[in-house]
Amino acid sequence: MQKTLEKWTRQCGENDNTTLYMNMVIAWNYCHLGEYDKAMQICQNVLNTARLTGGDEHSYAILAMFGLGSIRIEQGRDIHEAEQWLTKALQLSNHAKGPDHAWTRDFRGWMGLTYVLQGRYAEAESMLTESTANESRIFGDDHWQTTQDVEHMARLYVAWEKSQEAIKWRRKLTAIKSENITENPAENLYYDEATDSYTLREPAGSGMAIGHVFDEIQFAHKTLQGDGQITIRIDGVESPNAWGAAGVMIRNTLDPTSAHVSVVIERQGIVTCYWREEERGQIRKKSVCVRGLKFPYWVRLTRTNNIFVAEHSTDGETWEEVRGSNQNGSGLVDIEMNELVHIGSIVTSWTMYSTGRTPRTTEAHISNFNIVGEIDPSGPITESKEISLLAAVSPTDKSR
Question: What's the pLDDT score for residue 11?
């Protein structure tokens, strides 16, 4: 793609619409690879070029503004600045493209999520209610843009502490995707004593992963008192889509909204450190794309007081901190947590964005499991818990 862009730019110039389009595609690719600084630099370049040609209402100026806002939301950083970019993109798209244009509708949903993260819940509710209704009317309930807004509604009501509304919207998402879910009869945690290895599976019907406000994961865990460290070797991740992930986590509580730090490997070779600093808070993250990543692969998470270090390794001997796209930055995360926390391995995915029938849930194969510190109980991990919005609801009530 980069070579094609360079050739096209030489032939047609930097301000050609196709050149600008290809630049935005590359920016989204960098975003998906966790290289957010590169993605935002390209968006800024596109914005500057498009403005010279057609001002702020140039289509690619609008799209670049959206990119500068949404990429910040994706990382959970600079929310106020993200809001400014998204507000301008939404206003310009509404004026230049119209309220029913795909961009305008998509921007509206992102604006609603931004209000959630700012604690502006009534404004978020109004924005997301309108956005969800429009997406459903135009695309139908099963389209990814509709389900994305339904997910945002669930996160809104969890943040707003309106649990019944949150459960209603999470059930709606399950109902929309019910035909895509195949019940997995296998147990969620299997320990093979002969090989000292584990298979960890996410539950059927899961699929909102680690996200703003709350998480949906399968967590094989113990308790840790004070400082400690967990190391695992991930031998493979099997998932029906590209968003399957596995790794390690230290978590304040077993509530889905809990503060935590984790380091995971996504199936496409991205190593990400996620953290939530407070209950029902936004997710922050930094990622590194490991070109040509092959399993087995190692991850490690260390706690010293309230300082956490996420690391990854190809061989379990030489370790690198997960620093994000700024390799000169710090890999440390500072979060105040309880002395007694939960520590273990997770598997998760974004299966709710899948289309078509999902034949299985995501599962991870894990070995060389080692936890250092004052842990309880001793021996192999035997406890695995589904952490999700609906996990505490009885099986009879989950699909109501």
Answer: 66
